[in-house]
């Protein structure tokens, strides 16, 4: 939809240009920003003009996913071949269509911090670490599973920019498994369970990512205190379904 | 930017999306369905890549090549994908079609073939509310559904098809935007409040603002947004703008400005102070003494509200026979209470209208309406104009389903045009469709049945409570209809019906496909299913033993109907067809460990609404030999334009290609009540047939030999009325661990008399069944404790996607109606009605415990399955019927 309060559109070419003026907000794919009224937003600053590489393999084997990497680019990148089934499943778990995936970005999906954010599910599930540019020109790193704090809230402070997500080399080598459930076959996820080795990550069913140990699954599930309640599924059902899915994931990875 | 091969210069606004930019350039193939990336109606290709143009920043498309459906082909030379949509008739209203064509093109090979794997995933971002997706899947698969011949009884192609698939058909607001003012509405933040002060001065001072309307500007006339042939059918409880707001989201003020942007900005400058009043959101609470009154100050007689002091807008209390005695004599008794949800119509085109003054100073309103004549007459009433000074026209209407049997935007537009003298447009947002526009009446349906040892009914007791929301538009009509054919379907000497429609401070409900029958059927058909179990006979058999058949009267809770007759009777065939189809045992296999169940439900519907439905039509033989049909009804995917062409071609014995329809215009005919109550074929069609016969008689008598035009005239007055029948059957599998339900088999039999156009008829069934599945399993407009609608977007709600709707086998009974045109009966709302109860009965069969609440979402089914495991369901003790008050029957 038209964002009628917006009067400026900046195309930054350097990191310094990311300092936001009053009313400015960062624009990545735009698929969420343009999907809801944004009262008070008067300017857009287009991250995609910075030319961040979509996906890189760093020297130490870390897989770096640029924040502006689109979902479609990630799915299509040969660098994620070892994770291809998981990445594909996560992309399919997005409520929005494949057309949206051509524009929607990994960073945007994480920064939105929706419980059903499928890129949060994916990167948190792999133990991904967010690379955050701080306003002082520095950088800080925080696991995605911790950066996403709750429904629509992250640890990102004013002036901070999510630059990338680093997937550690070890995560590229472990076996992975993926399960999801929603009220309709292709609807908004009500529970997503990603298994990577012994790491079991629950998203969508909870208000924030919850990481469990495959070896102590039942104990971990019993301790979850943030089952999510919205029109896409009641919390008691999410808890029960998540337990079922998590057990399936553990069984698959243990097989 | 290159748009459809044409260079476009200029700079989009920084916050503009590509959709509105394209439309400003005159590229109206891109539609606004949701404006939020959910529905796909605005899909375009940017450098060959498909995107939703509503969430694509327009500035990003500068320097790129944009292709819409209009750039892919022309009506004369459609693209391979477009041709497939034509061959399959993969559309109804067509509002989503251009987006479908673009999306399919992005996935298709050169020859238009789309890989069949993963269609549900690929098209989850393309919503269609009309077709139920079957004909779209047919199009993607390259199937031909349209007949080569245009003859009566064949699957003639819809006249608008070529324009629809190539993005050229003009819907309501597909008009040039220059010189048009735009209206935006300020919504109430309170469910009930008195406006104590409005200061409009800051808004009026904003450059570009032309007009601000508040309650001070509204005529002191009470009316109803709900429209019927008689304006007395709905309560006069609404003002154009009121100083009391009665639901959160109700319009408080209107700003008219040069652009939507300026109007939005001005809304923020309006200063409104409210005295917040107590509100009641629960319909049970609303009737209790001391409840806040929604329209307590209004006169029951002047406003036609049954009891404003109890928030009751309409009621019926009556009994035939002796229900207490019938229950006492029963060998088997069952009872239960069922609840249905609020549902949004989700017509892909939102409510919208544009008005202007023509050269003669006459007010013209182009509106997305099912009832142009009724809107014309009510505009004249509200604004104190001569109806001759008002013209209401439609373009192609993007879906109706009853939602456009309301006057929701035309009143504001008309007043703004009269005040400014300028063209003014108001287009509701998708969010406003949820928060401001009426949806389906939620109902509480209590049923008690008694039967003898053979399963023959000895008593029916029905108690219904309908939540009409803050205004009573369609409240009385829906309540009476809901309790009518649902009860009249069964022969039983003892029947009691108590029903009330109550005001609450919720968003209003209104007319919606089935007009209440689906809600009450859930209760009655669930109870009958339970009764069959008690008696030990099949679900079909208990219907056979109890349904009405020719010779019976139609009885609810008072004297029988006087103008309802069996024009033909195919219910027996429908019951057999569905029973046989399910007995074949085919369909998808159930996954291991899932619980399987079958269910069915029948439904009856009068072919025409009661209390008058009128159409006057002309059929003109033009000098060039072509024939023009002048008829008042609008085309919104109901297919009446096709049917009218077929009827005229059949009557005159000419090629359908020679016939064109001019409809949806108060200037095109003298009168038409409108296309609701499934009347486009039987009433307007009846008038068209009569006009064609008149023309033929004149031609046979030698008229027109001079080559001049010859005009035949016909009319139809909607009485007597016939009955049509539907039976739906399903087999489902449910995973008790997750509540996931799969429909393994879906079959629908119907008695629509003689079938005029099999493909279109099947399409109406597909669409009705899909909406039934939506209500049964998915859809729920939620309202929070403070009256706020919390499901405000398609992604926060669940309109069935392609992957949610299985293919339904559609079977036609063979009957010939004595009343309808060429033996046909109406059939458009009815297929919706039996779907939810059939699914509920299948769930009961699978889980061993009966669902009592819609929608039966997975979380609820999971709970049901868990409860079934942990205990047997508590049986409700049969309630003692209340002491019988004197029967009162208050018809609206």
TrEMBL record, chain A:
Lineage, opening ranks: Bacteria, Bacillati, Actinomycetota, Actinomycetes, Propionibacteriales
PROSITE patterns reported in the protein's UniProt record: FAD_PCMH
SUPFAM superfamilies to which the protein is assigned, alphabetical: FAD-binding/transporter-associated domain-like (SSF56176)
Matching Pfam families: FAD_binding_5
InterPro entries membership: Diverse_Substr_Oxidored (IPR051312), FAD-bd_PCMH (IPR016166), FAD-bd_PCMH-like_sf (IPR036318), FAD-bd_PCMH_sub2 (IPR016169), Mopterin_DH_FAD-bd (IPR002346)
Protein name: FAD binding domain-containing protein
Domain of life where this protein originates: Bacteria
Gene3D superfamilies noted in UniProt: 3.30.465.10
Domain FAD-binding PCMH-type: 1-172
TrEMBL record, chain B:
Pfam families listed in its UniProt record: Ald_Xan_dh_C (PF01315), Fer2 (PF00111), Fer2_2 (PF01799), MoCoBD_1 (PF02738), MoCoBD_2 (PF20256)
Family assignment from sequence similarity: Belongs to the xanthine dehydrogenase family.
SMART domains noted in UniProt: Ald_Xan_dh_C (SM01008)
InterPro entries (UniProt xref): 2Fe-2S-bd, 2Fe-2S-bd_dom_sf, 2Fe-2S_ferredoxin-like_sf, 2Fe-2S_ferredoxin-type, 2Fe2S_fd_BS, Ald_Oxase/Xan_DH_a/b, Ald_Oxase/Xan_DH_a/b_sf, Ald_Oxase/xanthine_DH-like
The protein, known as: Molybdopterin-dependent oxidoreductase
Keyword Iron: yes
Lineage: Bacteria, Bacillati, Actinomycetota, Actinomycetes, Propionibacteriales
SUPFAM superfamilies in alphabetical order: 2Fe-2S ferredoxin-like, CO dehydrogenase ISP C-domain like, CO dehydrogenase molybdoprotein N-domain-like, Molybdenum cofactor-binding domain
Keywords: Iron, Metal-binding, Oxidoreductase
Pro residues: compositionally biased ranges: 874-885
PROSITE patterns xref list: 2FE2S_FER_1 (PS00197), 2FE2S_FER_2 (PS51085)
Organism: Nocardioides oceani
Ranges of residues in domain 2Fe-2S ferredoxin-type: 1-72
Region (Disordered): 863-892
Hydrolase recorded as keyword: no
């Amino acid at each position: 939809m038209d964002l009628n309060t917006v009067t400026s559109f900046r195309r930054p070419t350097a990191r310094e240009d990311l300092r936001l003026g009053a009313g400015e907000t960062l624009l990545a794919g735009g698929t969420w920003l343009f999907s809801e009224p944004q009262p008070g937003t008067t300017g857009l600053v287009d991250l995609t003009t910075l030319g961040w590489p979509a996906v890189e393999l760093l020297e130490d084997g870390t897989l770096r996913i640029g924040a502006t990497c689109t979902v479609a680019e990630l799915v299509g990148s040969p660098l994620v071949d070892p994770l291809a089934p998981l990445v594909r499943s996560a992309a399919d778990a997005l409520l929005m269509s494949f057309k949206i995936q051509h524009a929607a970005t990994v960073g945007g999906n994480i920064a939105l911090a929706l419980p059903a954010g499928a890129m949060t599910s994916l990167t948190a599930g792999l133990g991904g670490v967010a690379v955050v540019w701080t306003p002082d020109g520095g950088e800080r790193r925080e696991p995605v599973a911790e950066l996403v704090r709750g429904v629509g809230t992250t640890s990102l402070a004013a002036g901070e920019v999510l630059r990338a997500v680093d997937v550690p080399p070890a995560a590229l080598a472990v076996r992975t498994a993926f399960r999801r459930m929603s009220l309709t076959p292709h609807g908004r996820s009500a529970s997503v369970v990603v298994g990577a080795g012994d790491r079991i990550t629950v998203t969508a069913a909870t208000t924030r990512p919850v990481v469990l140990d495959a070896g102590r699954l039942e104990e971990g599930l019993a301790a979850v205190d943030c089952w999510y309640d919205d029109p896409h599924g009641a919390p008691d059902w999410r808890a029960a379904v998540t337990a079922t899915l998590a057990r399936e994931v553990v069984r698959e990875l243990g097989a | 930017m290159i748009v459809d091969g044409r260079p476009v210069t200029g700079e989009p606004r920084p916050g503009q999306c590509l959709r509105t930019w394209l439309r400003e350039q005159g590229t109206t193939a891109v539609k606004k369905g949701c404006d939020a990336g959910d529905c796909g109606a605005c899909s375009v290709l940017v450098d060959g890549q498909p995107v939703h143009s509503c969430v694509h920043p327009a500035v990003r498309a500068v320097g790129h090549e944009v292709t819409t459906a209009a750039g892919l082909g022309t009506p004369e030379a459609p693209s391979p994908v477009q041709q497939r949509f034509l061959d399959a008739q993969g559309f109804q209203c067509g509002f989503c079609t251009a987006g479908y064509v673009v999306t399919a093109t992005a996935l298709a090979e050169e020859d238009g073939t789309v890989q069949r794997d993963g269609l549900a995933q690929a098209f989850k971002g393309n919503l269609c509310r009309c077709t139920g997706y079957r004909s779209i899947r047919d199009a993607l698969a390259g199937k031909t559904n349209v007949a080569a011949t245009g003859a009566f009884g064949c699957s003639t192609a819809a006249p608008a098809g070529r324009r629809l698939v190539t993005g050229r058909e003009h819907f309501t607001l597909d008009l040039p935007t220059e010189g048009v003012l735009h209206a935006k509405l300020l919504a109430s933040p309170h469910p009930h409040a008195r406006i104590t002060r409005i200061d409009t001065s800051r808004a009026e001072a904003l450059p570009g603002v032309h007009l601000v309307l508040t309650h001070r500007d509204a005529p002191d006339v009470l009316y109803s947004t709900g429209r019927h042939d008689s304006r007395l059918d709905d309560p006069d409880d609404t003002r154009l703008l009121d100083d009391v707001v009665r639901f959160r989201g109700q319009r408080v003020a209107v700003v008219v400005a040069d652009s939507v942007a300026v109007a939005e900005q001005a809304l923020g400058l309006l200063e409104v102070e409210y005295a917040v009043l107590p509100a009641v959101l629960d319909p049970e609470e609303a009737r209790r003494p001391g409840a806040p009154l929604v329209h307590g100050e209004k006169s029951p007689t002047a406003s036609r509200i049954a009891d404003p002091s109890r928030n009751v807008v309409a009621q019926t209390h009556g009994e035939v026979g002796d229900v207490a005695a019938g229950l006492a004599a029963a060998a088997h008794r069952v009872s239960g209470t069922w609840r249905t949800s609020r549902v949004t119509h989700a017509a892909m085109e939102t409510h919208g209208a544009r008005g202007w003054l023509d050269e003669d100073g006459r007010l013209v309103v182009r509106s997305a309406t099912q009832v142009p004549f009724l809107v014309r007459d009510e505009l004249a009433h509200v604004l104190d104009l001569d109806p001759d000074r008002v013209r209401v026209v439609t373009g192609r209407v993007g879906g109706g389903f009853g939602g456009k049997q309301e006057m929701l935007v035309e009143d504001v537009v008309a007043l703004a045009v009269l005040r400014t003298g300028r063209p003014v447009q108001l287009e509701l947002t998708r969010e406003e469709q949820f928060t401001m526009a009426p949806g389906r009446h939620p109902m509480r349906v209590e049923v008690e049945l008694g039967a003898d040892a053979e399963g023959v009914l000895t008593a029916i007791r029905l108690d219904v409570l309908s939540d009409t929301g803050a205004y009573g538009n369609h409240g009385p009509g829906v309540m009476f209809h809901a309790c009518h054919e649902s009860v009249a379907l069964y022969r039983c000497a003892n029947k009691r019906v108590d029903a009330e429609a109550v005001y609450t401070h919720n968003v209003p409900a209104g007319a919606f496909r089935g007009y209440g029958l689906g809600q009450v059927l859930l209760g009655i058909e669930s109870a009958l299913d339970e009764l069959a179990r008690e008696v030990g006979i099949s679900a079909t058999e208990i219907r056979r033993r109890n349904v009405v058949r020719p010779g019976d009267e139609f009885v609810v809770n008072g004297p029988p109907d006087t103008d309802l007759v069996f024009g033909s009777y195919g219910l027996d065939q429908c019951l057999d067809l569905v029973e046989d189809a399910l007995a074949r045992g085919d369909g998808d296999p159930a996954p291991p460990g899932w619980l399987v169940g079958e269910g069915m439900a029948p439904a009856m519907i009068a072919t025409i609404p009661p209390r008058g439905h009128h159409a006057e039509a002309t059929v003109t033989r033009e000098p060039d030999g072509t024939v023009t049909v002048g008829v008042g009804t609008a085309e919104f995917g109901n297919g009446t334009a096709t049917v009218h062409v077929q009827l005229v071609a059949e009557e005159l014995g000419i090629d359908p290609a020679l016939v064109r329809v001019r409809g949806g215009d108060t200037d095109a005919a003298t009168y038409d009540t409108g296309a609701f109550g499934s009347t486009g074929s039987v009433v307007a069609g009846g008038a068209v047939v009569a006009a064609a016969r008149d023309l033929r008689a004149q031609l046979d008598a030698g008229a027109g030999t001079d080559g001049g035009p010859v005009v035949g005239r016909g009319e139809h007055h909607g009485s007597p009325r016939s009955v049509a029948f539907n039976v739906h059957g399903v087999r489902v599998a449910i995973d008790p661990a997750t509540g996931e339900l799969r429909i393994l088999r879906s079959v629908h039999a119907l008695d629509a008399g003689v079938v005029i156009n099999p493909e279109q008829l099947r399409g109406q069934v597909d669409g009705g069944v899909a909406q039934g599945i939506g209500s049964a399993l998915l859809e729920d407009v939620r309202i929070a404790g403070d009256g706020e609608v919390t499901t405000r977007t398609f992604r926060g709600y669940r309109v069935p996607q392609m992957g949610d709707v299985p293919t339904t086998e559609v079977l036609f009974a063979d009957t010939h109606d004595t009343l309808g045109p060429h033996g046909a009966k109406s059939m458009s709302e009815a297929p919706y009605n039996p779907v939810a109860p059939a699914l509920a009965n299948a769930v009961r069969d699978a889980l061993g415990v009966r669902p009592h609440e819609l929608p039966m979402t997975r979380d609820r089914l999971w709970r049901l399955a868990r409860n079934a495991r942990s205990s047997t369901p508590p049986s409700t003790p049969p309630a003692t019927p209340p002491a019988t008050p004197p029967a009162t029957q208050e018809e609206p």
